[in-house]
Input
Amino acid sequence: MSRFLDVLSHLLSGLGLAALVVLVFSLLLRKSHQKRPNSVILGLLFGFGAMAAMVYPSVFSPGVLIDTRAVMLVLAAPFGGPMAAFVSMAMAALTRIYIGGAGVHAGLLGIAVSGGIGLAFRYGLSNRLDMRGLIQLGLLTPLYLFAYALLPRDVAAAALFATGPHVVVLNFAGVVLLGSALAYELNHHDRFVALQAAAERDPLTKLANRRALEAFGKSNALHVGMAGDVYAVVMFDLDHFKAVNDTFGHDAGDVVLSAVATTIRNSVRHSDFVARYGGEEILVVLPGASAEGAYGLAETVRQKIAALTIAYQDRSINATISAGVACFSTCDLNLDAVIKKADEALYRAKSGGRNRSEIFYQSRAA
Output
């Protein structure tokens, strides 16, 4: 009875240490903002959780340890990916080798089986991180007990008889409870990211909105300028857009604006930032681009739009755009200053007859 209580006490302590992993996991998610934490970092986290479980084990017999390392090793792949699984297994294996003892080979096999269970769950079985999936994963976890086959037969039999059922139950509970906590944090993070993305996305054109542009200016474009590099801004504006709405209706105007936005988005580089600036204005920030390079893009887009026939119901609609181009210079304090220059160039393009592109303080006819 005393041995059982000792094992139970150590296993519960191990799960308590593993619960700290949930708190760190939550902090990592909050720090990662738009994306999930790096898989190597998650591997270190799950690895430390497994190591913590082994630091305070129940010693069944000299060199034979009973702990809850399998909980963290099984959860590593579903929540962190294959790299996290391998990192955590390596950390646990090195720790087990350092501890040593007669059960080291069985311990290493158990570590490999536990990590393999998580990998199999992620890539071959389910990878559902809901209650049903975690119950399935918890039921698979005791498979690591087959590693006891590497122990002397009498030791393995005694360990399974004395502690096997309790180890199975506690590992199952650990996987389900800790997995549920991790899944809750992950779902909460994903919902937050989705809501944040929706708040920074124009619902009609699917482009970034002014809020996202402000964040981009603070975290990217302004930094690029301060680093001594250049960037350019192109401000596009649909010509006679009011006439399209008046002639064909506002629904048709939405279709035209969406088609123009799609054409612009498909014409820029992956590193460029495209946003709906307001109304029928669309802004493009091009890191590393010169004014001439940005002007070339503006002209390419302008010609594509001029050649575009937009279908709406049983009608065909043609549209044109004007563009203003400006480039960062040392006298510009921020992105807003460059946007203002591009807007002035756009005004010149509009005043010059529309369906044309202008560079700030330099006129070029289409």
User: Anything to note?
Assistant: The two ends are 91 Å apart (CA to CA). The longest helix spans residues 153-199. The chain has a mean pLDDT of 85.
